[in-house]
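Aim 2 progress update. The chain analyzed this quarter is reproduced below.
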Amino acid sequence: MTGFLFAICIFHSDFVIFSNSCPA
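Predicted C-alpha cells:
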C-alpha cells in the first residue's frame, strides 16, 4: 500500500506538495 500511495502522491503532485500532502 505504501508504494501505491507514494506513486499517487508523485503522480498527483510534483514534489513540493508531495512532501506536504503525503507523509514521507
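The mean pLDDT is 62. Helices lie at 2-12, 16-21. These observations will guide the mutagenesis experiments scheduled for the next reporting period.
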